[in-house]
């Protein structure tokens, strides 16, 4: 066993030990402060374990972005608790649509599941037998048809232009009626989401252009890439913050994915990240779509922001306590887009096939009808798909970790574009379903087949 593998197994053993203590501490002590601290230590170990095999000594990669999203949206309230001990009694409470504080047994189970998530994800990197990562990176540099590339370029440009106008309309609606007005039509009969399709086309086509950017004139690539980033940044004016952060992370990855980063740069990036989180709600309030927050001291505002963003933890907790999810939800999650076939069979309500809508409708049908929703999490998907059976839940996350490793090995045009899509999606994936990501990958694969960065050869499989 080489030194690197020895370090991984040693850290993994320490990680499991801290996980056990994080659960026991709740039984021993009267508050959650120590448990929160220990779980954050488990997270830090998971973060380093998943990065030990980096060829480039940089944390600007897919697994890091995913874990940062987990830190903010799942562990945000535990971070807030470290800043403010006064919220000890409300860390595991929710007062929107659902209205409850979790019992001690429920909290024990929730924290146990959190530890399972971190251990399962880390284990994919600990038990990784791929010894040739990045060995043949970018080996496949086949030229693509200029005419076909032009078609994809025009699709990307057109869809981004449409998104610009759609965003401006959404900003106007949010200013006039508030952020939740953007989702007020969820209770209406289902119709194919045209806006979602256009957004998916923009991401998939942009991924194609990015994967073969060396075959596009620099000016045209920079023009399209800049417009794409700007369209995502604009999303914050509608009150949506995930696209804003994802755009910043995409830019960071674009410039630093193959570079060593010094400690000073990491320190600067960390401070910059905290400032973004600190000012996030104020930026979102510029358009009036979200209420402007008063000027508090730095630590208090930071604590409140982490507490607010960490609501996904309780959304997940609510999702695992709901039973009898609709069977059609399994089809919709694994085969996104199939829901367009449901209306002719009398299935017109989202809660009949969408798990997040079902959860909201079951708990508070009035709030659902009014357009309110709780959101969802990819871990809720895994939990429902595994029927709440924890070993199967563990395996789902382990395989997801293996998928991350495979995508990171971007040794072809197709994988470069796939990595682009995942980089764009993984930070916010923690607070959304996996279904849109699957759908985007399917559309991207169709584009790839069209320009032949993905094709099939007999007896040799996919290239």
Q: Mean pLDDT across all residues, rounded?
A: 84
Number of strands: 4
- Percent helix, as a range, is 55-70%
Number of helices: 19
What order do the strands of the largest sheet run in, or round the barrel if closed? Answer: 1-2
**So what's the overall shape?**
globular
Low-confidence stretches: 132-136, 187-191, 459-463
How many domains? The number is: 3
SS content category: mainly alpha
Topology order in helix (H) and strand (E) letters: HHHHEEHHHHHHHHHHHHHHHEE
User: How far is it from the N-terminal to the C-terminal residue, by CA?
Assistant: 32 Å
Largest sheet: 2 strands, antiparallel
Strand content: under 5%
Q: Using only CA atoms, what is the Rg?
A: 22 Å
Give a topology summary:
Blueprint: H1 3-28, H2 33-49, H3 62-73, H4 76-83, E1 93-94, E2 100-101, H5 104-126, H6 146-177, H7 194-211, H8 218-233, H9 242-256, H10 263-284, H11 298-309, H12 312-320, H13 328-334, H14 355-363, H15 365-369, H16 378-385, H17 390-408, H18 413-429, H19 435-451, E3 456-457, E4 461-462
Antiparallel strand pairs: 1-2, 3-4
Helix pairs in contact: 1-2, 1-5, 2-4, 2-5, 3-18, 4-11, 5-17, 6-7, 6-8, 7-8, 7-18, 7-19, 8-9, 9-18, 10-11, 16-17, 18-19
Report what the structure shows:
With 463 residues, this protein is mostly helical. It has three domains: 176 residues, no CATH class; 200 residues, no CATH class; 41 residues, no CATH class. Helix content is 63%, strand content 2%. It is built from 19 helices and four strands. Strands 1-2 form a two-stranded antiparallel ribbon. It has a two-stranded antiparallel ribbon with strand order 3-4. A hairpin with a 5-residue loop joins strand 1 and strand 2. The C terminus is likely disordered.
């Amino acid at each position: 066993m080489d030194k690197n593998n020895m370090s991984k197994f040693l850290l993994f053993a320490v990680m499991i030990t801290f996980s056990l203590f994080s659960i026991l501490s709740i039984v021993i002590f009267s508050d959650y402060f120590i448990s929160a601290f220990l779980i954050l230590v488990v997270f830090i170990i998971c973060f380093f374990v998943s990065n030990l095999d980096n060829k480039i000594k940089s944390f600007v990669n897919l697994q890091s972005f995913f874990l940062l999203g987990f830190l903010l949206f799942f562990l945000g309230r535990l971070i807030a608790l470290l800043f403010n001990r006064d919220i000890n009694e409300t860390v595991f409470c929710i007062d929107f649509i659902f209205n409850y504080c979790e019992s001690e047994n429920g909290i024990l189970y929730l924290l146990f599941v959190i530890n399972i998530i971190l251990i399962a994800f880390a284990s994919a990197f600990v038990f990784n037998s791929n010894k040739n990562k990045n060995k043949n990176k970018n080996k496949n540099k086949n030229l693509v048809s200029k005419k076909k590339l032009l078609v994809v370029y025009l699709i990307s440009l057109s869809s981004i232009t449409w998104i610009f106008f759609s965003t401006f309309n959404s900003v106007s609606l949010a200013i006039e009626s508030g952020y939740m007005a953007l989702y007020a039509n969820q209770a209406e009969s289902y119709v194919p989401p045209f806006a979602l399709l256009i957004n998916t086309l923009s991401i998939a086509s942009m991924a194609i252009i990015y994967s073969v950017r060396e075959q596009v004139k620099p000016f045209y690539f920079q023009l399209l890439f800049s417009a794409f980033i700007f369209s995502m940044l604009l999303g914050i004016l509608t009150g949506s913050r995930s696209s804003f952060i994802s755009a910043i992370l995409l830019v960071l990855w674009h410039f630093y994915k193959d570079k060593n980063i010094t400690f000073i740069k990491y320190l600067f990036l960390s401070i910059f990240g905290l400032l973004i989180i600190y000012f996030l709600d104020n930026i979102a309030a510029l358009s009036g779509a979200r209420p402007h927050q008063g000027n508090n001291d730095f630590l208090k505002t930071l604590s409140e922001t982490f507490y607010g963003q960490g609501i996904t933890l309780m959304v997940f907790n609510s999702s695992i306590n709901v039973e009898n999810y609709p069977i059609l939800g399994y089809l919709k999650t694994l085969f996104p887009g199939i829901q367009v076939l449901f209306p002719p069979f009398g299935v017109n309500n989202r809660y009949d096939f969408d798990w997040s809508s079902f959860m909201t409708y079951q708990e508070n049908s009035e709030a659902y009808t009014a357009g309110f929703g709780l959101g969802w999490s990819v871990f809720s998907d895994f939990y429902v798909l595994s029927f709440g059976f924890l070993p199967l839940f563990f395996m789902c996350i382990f395989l997801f970790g293996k998928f991350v490793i495979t995508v990171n090995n971007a040794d072809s045009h197709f994988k470069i574009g796939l990595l682009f899509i995942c980089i764009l999606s993984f930070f916010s994936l923690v607070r959304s379903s996996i279904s849109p990501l699957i759908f985007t990958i399917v559309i991207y694969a169709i584009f790839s087949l069209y320009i032949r960065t993905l094709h099939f050869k007999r007896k040799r499989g996919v290239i």
